[in-house]
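ingest -> fold -> write
write: protein_1
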Amino acid sequence: MQHPPPRRIEAIDLARGAALVAMAIYHFTWDLEFFGHVEAGLTAHGGWKVFARSIASSFLFLAGVSLFLAHGEAFRRKPFLKRLLQVAGAAAAISAVTYVAVPDGFIFFGILHQIALASLLGLAFVRLPWVVNLAIAAFFVAAPHYLRSAFFDHPAWWWVGLSSANPRSNDYVPLFPWFGAVLAGIAAARLARDTGMLDRLGRLPAGAWSRPLRLAGRHSLAVYLIHQPVLIACVWAFSQVFPAPQEAREVRFMRTCERQCAEIRDAGFCPRYCACMLDAIEAEGLADAVFAGGATAELQSRLEGLAGMCTFDTEQGGFTPAPPQGGSG
């Protein structure tokens, strides 16, 4: 049977466009960090980390909403396959480009990979009651806190998201917990349909002010693929005219280490612990590999051993910090 396409709800395009703006803000800040114009590690911690996760969650939630709207009543094979091929092809292209550009942190399973997989898996959930989908979504979100295992440490299983430690990647959005956001979107869309909210949402007038956002939302994949190369090119050009001040790598290490440490330990512990780590890394001859961003299993194992030693020494009060002095390097 041929089923008519669902009516387009402009409010959803608007929400997707707003998420794209938020994503561009985050990526622009990441680019500034990459070129040294803001503090190293800024976007990976604190409020920026929450901001990044909120953006990813919003895109996946909206992907679930769209999947229900398009196929909740009847599966429309041709548009589904066309969209799936577009997303999967874009995901493969991003993996290839980032593997060449940043092999130590290339994107092997980012948000587009997640959307492609979630689109396939989500078809099995679009007909379920919303409360069931919401319960399953909660399971996906909670699972990484309880089901991590060394069994999933092999790279072939990294896409699952249950390895004992997350692998290094510039965009890592595995099945667990992120498929939960897609299921939450499916549940919300079904609930909205059952309560008549979708009909009311579809009748909301969209002001002229929202036209650029709605246009971006309709072409979100193209905007996603184009915006970061444009932003990074602009920041690179700016850096050629106004190069960022250079700090000693030891200073950058201390700042990043203390920011990461402060998320789980008190302010008195972190400076002493990080100074201990810096001294230990240099004493072991690992400084060049660490500062170059190396992420081999051997290096990770040695760093974990040093971290355990420094944690013990700092907790016992046996280490007096001697943090590096600032300067050019």
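write: protein_2
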Amino acid sequence: MQLGRLGVWYPMDRLSGDQIRAFLGKLEQLGYDALWYPESRGYESLSLAGFMLANSTKLKVGSSIASTYARDAFTARRGLLTLNGLYGERFILGLGVSHAPMVEGVRGHEYQKPVPAMRAYLDALVQRESGTESWPVAIAALGPLMLKLAAERTRGALPYNTTPAHTATARKALGAGKWLVAEQKITLESDPTKARTLGRAELKHYMVLDNYRNNWLRLGFTEKELADGGSDRFIDAMVLWGDADRIKAGLRAHLDAGADQVCIQPVHANGDFAARDRMLTALADT
């Protein structure tokens, strides 16, 4: 499986079945390589992947991420092999250890240390199987230890809420030949106040999660910049805004830093799917 330059990241639990079908058709028409989607409290991740693969013809579908606490490794393995066997090798199993509040507060599990927990899950995923090196499995990785594990045990890494500087660091950690798929939020809005308001609303629920905060501090942002919804400098780095040319330059910065694919997350007012589609149309030739 080879990755194209552009993918899309989008939360599918906002959409009905008919809306998902229309969205898939739009992405295929525009020529995007892959659609990445998160674990949610709505649709079950692998069931949703099956629906999307059945309603598309060439688009790759990747979980970004399927939580290791939501299904055991045997179930994830069978899902990975089943979906690829039935739908022409178009499914990528993106795995992540999620976040303590979601694991303990929502699913009732005890949150484990992230890197040992992911290593144990990957051990179980490939247990007594052959040819696993080629399986399309990647993991959510931000820090150096998880990036090292991604390089050693999977096809690559799926960093989220990062910058081109992190992409460059991740490429060095992964080495050549490993997938690096960088997510980037964007909004096609030239008014800085409106753009930053959308950005702060989108990032609000991430700002309280330790793994993201720790990574932002490693990237050189300060605690002051992460307070009160985030400074302008921080928001501008997390959510690219402006006209299409300005945003394309920001997307290309990830590719120039070593990403195999940059996946665009359009940020828009709740329910404004027309704005989402305008953004994806404008950026499809990045």
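write: annotation protein_2
The longest strand covers residues 179-187.
The beta strands are 6-9, 34-37, 60-63, 66-67, 91-96, 137-139, 156-157, 179-187, 239-241, 261-266.
pipeline exit 0
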